[in-house]
């Protein structure tokens, strides 16, 4: 693709299309073509972002919010072993889930952490 060859990267920032490129690589013609395809490019790039970042099941949102608020700073005994800081464990699992690293395992570990927290 011409964009890759020229070192041009398109990303979505908020709801705007953002282009990063080396000096001189974006020609007026190419800029016009990108502008004409902006709507389709936004849809495609937003779809890639959604596919790349996995959403955490809503029942687990509460424990992640508690961890963010530093309400879980205590040890926890989980089926997989003891963790020294339940909050840090929850945040790590949520982050790994978000980037698609063993999402089923992260959900299982978060459910276990939620059970420990509820006790």
Looking at this protein, list some descriptive labels:
alpha+beta, two-stranded antiparallel sheet, 6 helices, 2 domains, 119 residues, Arc Repressor Mutant, subunit A
Structure description:
The structure is a single chain. The chain has six helices and four strands, in the order αββαααββαα. The longest helix has 16 residues, at 103-118. It has two domains: 2-52, Orthogonal Bundle (Arc Repressor Mutant, subunit A); 58-118, no CATH class. It is elongated. With 119 residues, the chain is α+β, with helices and mostly antiparallel strands. β1 and β2 form a beta hairpin. It has a two-stranded antiparallel sheet with strand order 1-2. α4 (61-68) packs across α5 (86-98) and α5 packs antiparallel against α6 (103-118). The model has no long low-confidence stretch (mean pLDDT 87). 55% of the residues lie in helices and 13% in strands.
